Amino acid sequence: MMAINIRRLFLFFLVPAFCAHANLPAWIQTPPTSDTELFAIGEGNNKEQAKDVALKNILGQLRTRLNARFEQKQLMVNDRFDETIKQTINSSIEELPISQYKELKNHQENGVFYNLISVTKKQLASTFTSEIKSKLHQAKQVINTRKTGGSELEWWFVNKDQLLATHTTNLRLLDILAQLDHPSNQLSTELSAFEKQLVTLQNSNCLYVKPHKKLADIQFSLREQIVALGLPADNENCRYSISTKDDAEVRLLFGKHTASVKLNLTLFNQQRSLASEQLFETGTSMSSAEFATKGAYQRLVNTIRSDNGAIISKLLTN
After folding, report:
1. Which of 7, 43, 128, 227 has its Cβ near the most Cβ atoms within 10 Å?
2. Mean pLDDT throughout 207-235?
3. pLDDT at 146
4. Is the pTM of this model over 0.85?
5. Whole-angstrom Cα distance, residue 298 to residue 104?
6. In the chain, what are the domains?
C-alpha cells in the first residue's frame, strides 16, 4: 500500500510539470532552422532579458561549433598564456554587438519570458568582418609604437600578450566567417601577413642567460622564468642577454658558519647595458663554510624559481 501511495504522489507532481512543458509553443521546444539564418531562443524574467539571452545564444552557437573542431595556433610557448587566449576569445565573441536581428515570437509562461530571434548569416558575417578589421587596425597601431622609446624587448614584453590574444581571436573570428559561407580571402591574406610579423618579433625578442661560472642551476632557474613569461630563451646569439656575477662572504658567528651571497644580474643589448638587479641570500652551517655557502646558493636558486618571474620582469621594465 505504501509503494502504491508513493507512486501516486510521484505522478501527482510529475503530471503538472509535464503538462506545463507540453503547453509551451512548438517553436520553443523545436526552434526553426534555415540555410541562410540562425535562430535562438532566450529565457528571462522579462522580455528584454529574454531577448539579450537569445542574442548571446546566437553567438554561443558559433563558439560551441568552433570549440569542437578548432585547433589553436601556437604562437606562444606556455600554457598560462594559452588559457588567457581562450578566455579572451570566448569573451570577445560573446560580447560582439548584433544590431540587425528580428524578434520573431514572444511567449510568457509561469513568469518566464521566452523570445525567439533570428539573424541572417550575411548580416552576422558583416558584424564579424568589421570586428576583425577593427582589431587588426588596433594591433597594427600598437606595433607602430615599438620605436617610440625604450628597448624593443621591453616593448614586446609589455605588449605581446595583447597582440597575440588579438591575433588569435581574429583567427577564430575568421573561422566563423567560413561557417557563415562568407568569402574571406582578403582578410585571410592580411592576417597571414600580420602573423609573419608577429613571429618575426617573437623570434627577435629573445632573452638568453649566459652560463653562471659556479652553479649551472642559476642559469637554468633564470631560463625557466623567461620561458614562463613567454619569451624564447635558448638562442645563444640573441642580441638580448642576462649576465650574472656573484660575491660570496663567509663569517664565523657564535660558532656557526654564515655565508652571504649577492647575485648581480645585468641585462644587455649586445654589449650595451640596459638594466641591473640584485638578489641576496644567506646560508648557515655548524660544520663548515663550504656547506654554508652551498646553502646560500641553493636558497638563491629557490628564490628565483619561486618569484614567478618577478626579477626578470623588473629587468625588462626598469
Report:
1. 128
2. 93
3. 84
4. no
5. 69
6. 23-205 (3.10.28.20), 208-317 (3.30.160.150)
